[in-house]
From TrEMBL:
Transmembrane stretches, start-end: none
Pfam families to which the protein is assigned, alphabetical: APH
Family from the record: Belongs to the pseudomonas-type ThrB family.
Protein name (Swiss-Prot/TrEMBL): Aminoglycoside phosphotransferase domain-containing protein
Position of the signal peptide: none
PANTHER family: AMINOGLYCOSIDE PHOSPHOTRANSFERASE DOMAIN-CONTAINING PROTEIN (PTHR21064:SF6), AMINOGLYCOSIDE PHOSPHOTRANSFERASE DOMAIN-CONTAINING PROTEIN-RELATED (PTHR21064)
One example GO MF annotation: homoserine kinase activity
Source organism, top-level taxon: Bacteria
Length: 225
């Protein structure tokens, strides 16, 4: 879509950049929520983010049936938790589904969004989840502290809410939607030869480690883990 995007990737966003990211995501959602669901390349639902990917990635767990059983069970629980929520009022529209810093540039505090390769139709809170997912990964890998990540997420949400509403129920869905994020991309990796490396045991093991961290740290304590 773009041959050039002004600015550069910023891994640790300052306050203004976090506010602007929230604002631009909200502005994008204002537009995408009014677009009809016609001919979407991707649709983000339980079938495409949980059920189908679990079948697609089975071969990556030939030597780790225990890991696959854990992943399947936790994916079922995530799905059940989302089904228990009142999702009737969740905002829907076209999602970017990859709001990681590699997919937007900052020139000072001005942001340019790009890489809409996975844009598809679904709950718009999925986009909030993808940025939350980035912060979780930064903490998990030791590049950021949890208090710093919490503060960044709060500022980002402030920027979003200054321009578009998001309910507490939608935000409560984020840690469970994250399973669909990882499963979707793990499944996608099995469909393209250039991503074969990411279907091998070391990478799959790292994905499981991240998901176990999410379950332990962010799922509500009354959920079976």
């Amino acid at each position: 879509m773009f041959s050039y995007a002004a600015g550069k990737v910023v891994r640790v966003l300052n306050e203004n950049q976090l506010l602007n990211l929230g604002k631009e995501m909200a502005r994008f959602h204002h537009v995408s929520s009014n677009m009809p669901e016609v001919g979407a390349r991707w649709n983000f639902n339980f079938e495409t983010t949980i059920d189908n990917p679990l079948r697609m990635i089975g071969g990556s767990f030939r030597d780790d049936p225990e890991g696959y059983n854990w992943l399947s069970e936790k994916a079922r629980i995530a799905k059940d938790q989302l089904l228990l929520m009142d999702t009737a009022d969740f905002s829907a529209g076209y999602c970017h589904f990859d709001f990681l810093p590699k997919n937007f540039h900052f020139e000072n505090d001005r942001i340019t969004l790009f890489d809409f390769d996975f844009m598809g139709y679904g709950w718009l809170v999925n986009d909030i989840m993808t940025f939350w997912q980035y912060l979780v990964l930064e903490v998990y890998t030791g590049r950021m502290t949890q208090p710093a990540a919490d503060e960044a997420y709060t500022i980002f949400l402030e920027g979003y809410r200054n321009h578009r509403s998001i309910s507490e129920v939608e935000l409560a869905a984020v840690p469970y939607l994250s399973f669909g994020f990882w499963l979707f991309y793990m499944g996608f990796h099995t469909t393209h030869d250039q991503f074969t490396l990411y279907t091998q045991a070391p990478h799959v093991k790292s994905y499981l480690g991240i998901l176990k961290h999410i379950v332990k740290s962010f799922w509500t304590k009354d959920v079976e883990i």
